[in-house]
Write a structure and sequence with these properties.
Distance between the termini: 41 Å
Number of strands: 2
Order of helices and strands: HHEEHHH
Largest sheet: 2 strands, antiparallel
Number of domains: 1
Length: 106
């Protein structure tokens, strides 16, 4: 379901392992009951809030998160790290794109 929503088939083959993991992380969060707790960047966040954010993630947000992961070194707790990257991408994406757009205008 998430794979279709984020148009996962449009990503390059080399990126598919991380894209698939992002989709599974979203699916896992969406399957949680609203009163459960999800760990984001070491902080407890109510699942209902995480589900709301993850439900708004689209192709461009996954692409943004994927670009954040390109430079990552060795990560010992991959799933919590990728969950945090994905969650933060939603909030970081628009300001980052606005900054790039302003650079192009100047």
């Amino acid at each position: 379901m998430t794979r279709k929503r984020v148009c996962a088939e449009n990503f390059e083959e080399k990126d598919m392992p991380i894209v698939d993991t992002f989709c599974l992380i979203i699916d896992e969060a969406e399957a949680m009951s609203d009163d459960e707790i999800c760990m984001i960047d070491g902080k407890k966040v109510q699942a209902s809030f995480v589900k709301d954010i993850f439900s708004k993630i689209d192709f461009f947000c996954i692409e943004f998160a994927l670009n954040k992961c390109r430079g990552m070194g060795t990560v010992t707790r991959t799933k919590p790290y990728l969950r945090t990257v994905l969650y933060n991408a939603f909030f970081e994406m628009n300001p980052a794109y606005e900054l790039e757009a302003r650079k192009l205008i100047v």
